[in-house]
Every structure is written in structure tokens, then in C-alpha cells.
């Protein structure tokens, strides 16, 4: 199997080990990185924005 390269390969390789337990998240991150050439910080910003939006909708304290 040919290994694909990416500027954040190390961080992407660590994601399944140290990131969320749901393997679907790792698969989606891999797709955004390799198929759409997003950097890890861009992917994390998408996640952060989604989480903040969800907390805001829920009226959670500290969602700013």
C-alpha cells in the first residue's frame, strides 16, 4: 500500500491514537486532509466552530 504524504502526516497519524474514539471522525479527518488538502489546524477550527455552535444552541455556559 502506497503511503500518502501530507504536511501534517505526523499529527494525522496520531489522531486515531490520541483523538476521539469514534473511528468515523478519524476517517472524515483523513478525507478532509488528503482529499481536500486541509491542514490539521483548519480541520480543528471546523470542529471547534461546530462544537461552539452546538453549545451556543444548547445555551451552555462558557460557550464563547
Can you characterise this structure?
The chain has three helices and no strands. With 64 residues, it is an all-alpha fold.
In short:
Helix content is 67%, strand content 0%.
Round the Cα radius of gyration to an integer and report it.
Answer: 14 Å
Helix vs. strand class: mainly alpha
Overall outline: elongated
What is the N-to-C succession of helices and strands? HHH
Proportion in β-strands: under 5%
Helix content: 55-70%
Number of helices: 3
Query: Can you count the beta strands?
Result: 0
Give a short account of the largest sheet: none
Distance between the termini: 44 Å
Give the averaged pLDDT, no decimals.
87
Low-confidence stretches: none
Mind sketching the topology for me?
Blueprint lengths: L8 H10 L4 H14 L3 H19 L6
Features:
64 residues; elongated; 3 helices
Amino acid at each position: 500500500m502506497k503511503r500518502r504524504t501530507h504536511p501534517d502526516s505526523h499529527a494525522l497519524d496520531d489522531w486515531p491514537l490520541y483523538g476521539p474514539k469514534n473511528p468515523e471522525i478519524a476517517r472524515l479527518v483523513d478525507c478532509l486532509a488528503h482529499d481536500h488538502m486541509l491542514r490539521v489546524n483548519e480541520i480543528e477550527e471546523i470542529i471547534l466552530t461546530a462544537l461552539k455552535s452546538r453549545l451556543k444552541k444548547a445555551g451552555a455556559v462558557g460557550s464563547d
